[in-house]
Write a structure and sequence with these properties.
By secondary structure, the protein is of the alpha/beta class. It is built from nine helices and four strands, in the order αααβαααβαββαα. A four-stranded parallel β-sheet has the order 1-2-3-4. The relative contact order is 0.09.
């Protein structure tokens, strides 16, 4: 089973398990940790795995430390306390293990979830949405996670009009090689708020569409969220194939 973790890292803090073979232990924990689950369930799963026994906990931290999931401020604080070796959690890891945990991380997924969609354009960044910028700031200040290569930011019910708004990526780590962004909207009877997809005046006029298609009219400066739709949205809306409010 491919676990996506360098198993050559010695488990110096994990004695030989008399009952469960180490390969099986790593396989069970790795499969469960990488399964899709809501952030609340993942945090609960993380907490419960620290209560099994010291051997299980040491193996779990090695595996979960490679693919880190951050979904709340409290869990982010706990994760960095692991790296700092604060007394509350230092019983799980010796100094060498904390060093290994810091260098083991290659992927981080940050989940930013709002209970409902903000219909009106926000002038200030909502508290929950500060999670990404706060995490990146911690990584920068602590000079942590030197082997972090992949950053995955998943937004739910978060406006996608401008990624760089509120300076969310101002502390983007230099060691990261790939950035993945995902936006989902979950609400009963929800249509994407109009302010997320700005439309230039006269965009749906037939002559404007014709000029754009033949190349005599340049594309307007769409906001970041609108780049996904491009000129196809003009055509679909004009011919009635797709309603604007449902794009």
């Amino acid at each position: 089973m491919q676990l996506g973790v360098d198993q050559s890292v010695p488990l110096t803090d994990t004695p030989n398990l008399p009952r469960i073979p180490p390969e099986l232990l790593w396989g069970v924990i790795g499969y469960a940790w990488r399964s899709e689950m809501p952030p609340r369930d993942r945090n609960s799963f993380f907490e419960r795995n620290l209560r099994v026994n010291t051997r299980w906990t040491a193996a779990f931290l090695r595996l979960s430390g490679a693919d880190v999931y951050i979904s709340t401020q409290s869990f982010m604080e706990f994760y960095f306390s692991l790296l700092r070796g604060q007394p509350l959690v230092s019983k799980f890891l010796h100094s060498q293990s904390r060093h290994t945990l810091n260098h083991l991380c290659t992927s981080v997924t940050v989940d930013i979830i709002n209970d409902r969609v903000q219909i009106e354009l926000q002038t200030e960044e909502p508290e929950r949405e500060k999670l990404l910028s706060d995490f990146l700031y911690r990584v920068k200040v602590l000079e942590a996670l030197p082997n972090l290569k992949h950053l995955n930011a998943r937004f739910q019910n978060v406006a996608c009009d401008d990624l760089f708004r509120f300076n969310r990526l101002v502390d983007f780590p230099k060691q990261v090689e790939s950035l993945s962004l995902g936006y989902t909207f979950k609400a009963h009877g929800f249509c994407l708020p109009q302010h997320m997809i700005e439309t230039p005046p006269g965009a749906y006029h037939p002559f404007a569409i014709f000029e754009y298609l033949v190349g005599t009219r340049t594309s307007p400066n769409w906001p970041l969220s609108a780049q996904r739709y491009g000129h196809w949205r003009w055509i679909l809306v004009y011919f009635g194939t797709l309603g604007y409010d449902n794009v």
